[in-house]
């Protein structure tokens, strides 16, 4: 599962900025298909310091 709590936008003159989603419906939890979980784990291992639980 992935929780959507914020969005990343390109703000003129500011670059990339995290903001709140446009509506409450945009804040949601999305199921990740088991077929791609290993790929996501590999990506997170290579590109972040946050492990996937």
CA-based gyration radius: 14 Å
- Shape, per Cα inertia axes: flat
How many β strands by DSSP? 4
What is the helix fraction of residues, given as a range?
10-25%
Strand order of the largest sheet: 1-4
| Most strands sheet | 2 strands, antiparallel
Question: Mean of residue pLDDT?
Answer: 88
Strand content: 25-35%
Low-pLDDT sequence parts: none
Helix/strand-derived category reads: alpha+beta
Instruction: Give the N-to-C terminal Cα separation.
Output: 10 Å
Order of helices and strands: EEEEH
How many helix segments? Answer: 1
Question: What would you say about this model in short?
Answer:
With 53 residues, this protein is an alpha+beta fold. The chain has one helix at 37-47; strands spanning 2-4, 7-11, 15-19, 28-30. The protein has one helix and four strands.
Descriptive labels:
53 residues; alpha+beta; two-stranded antiparallel ribbon; flat
Structure in words:
By secondary structure, the protein is an alpha+beta fold. It is built from 1 helix and 4 strands; from the N terminus they run E-E-E-E-H. The chain has one helix at 37-47, and strands at 2-4, 7-11, 15-19, 28-30. The strands form 2 sheets. Strands 1-4 form a two-stranded antiparallel ribbon. Strands 2-3 form a two-stranded antiparallel ribbon. A hairpin with a 3-residue loop joins strand 2 (7-11) and strand 3. The longest helix has 11 residues, at 37-47. The termini are close together. 0% of the residues are buried. The mean pLDDT is 88.
